[in-house]
Structure to design on (178 residues):
């Protein structure tokens, strides 16, 4: 799955006419980092909207967004080889998140509509795959989300893919139009 992201590196030293100066420790302040992340998200979302891309990013934690899932770290092939303990922890977390999604499929729909107003079954499957561990759990969660009364079929897009949204998102968009 593609996960576009950026890494921004900068010197901790001031730069002036004489070159590098002393370190500026205030740049390590967490509230400053949060502010930078928020402004970067705003910039990205304006650019996405200007380009007509139906996708948004949110710099906040899942908890702050009201999404009742535990955050996961990425487990790549090298990480698995070097740390089976981390893999086991990741699997346990995914199982717990899968159980949450099974008990409340609206968590998944909320997570999806925080990023884009419409989505496909493939988008649902990607989210469910990330938060489940077994084929049985994936299938149960995926089917429960597809059967949610909150899910609204919108029709096909220009690539002949069925697109969906939620009743809540449609109500919000209708309210904005009014």
């Amino acid at each position: 799955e593609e996960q576009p992201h950026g890494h921004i590196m900068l010197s901790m030293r001031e730069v002036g006419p004489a070159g590098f100066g002393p370190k500026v420790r205030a740049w390590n302040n967490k509230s400053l980092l949060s502010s930078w992340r928020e402004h970067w998200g705003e910039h990205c979302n304006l650019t996405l909207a200007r380009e007509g891309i139906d996708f948004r990013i949110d710099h906040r934690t899942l908890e702050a967004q009201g999404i009742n899932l535990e955050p996961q770290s990425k487990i790549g092939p090298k990480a698995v080889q070097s740390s089976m303990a981390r893999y086991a922890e990741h699997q346990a977390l995914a199982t717990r998140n899968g159980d949450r999604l099974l008990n409340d499929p609206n968590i998944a729909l909320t997570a999806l509509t925080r990023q884009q107003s419409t989505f496909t079954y493939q988008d649902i499957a990607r989210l469910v795959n990330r938060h489940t561990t077994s084929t049985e759990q994936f299938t149960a969660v995926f089917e429960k989300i597809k059967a949610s009364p909150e899910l609204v079929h919108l029709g096909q897009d220009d690539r002949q893919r069925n697109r969906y949204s939620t009743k809540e998102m449609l109500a919000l968009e209708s309210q904005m139009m009014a």
Summary: The first helix runs from residue 30 to 50. The two ends are 37 Å apart (CA to CA). The beta strands are 13-16, 19-23, 151-156, 162-166.
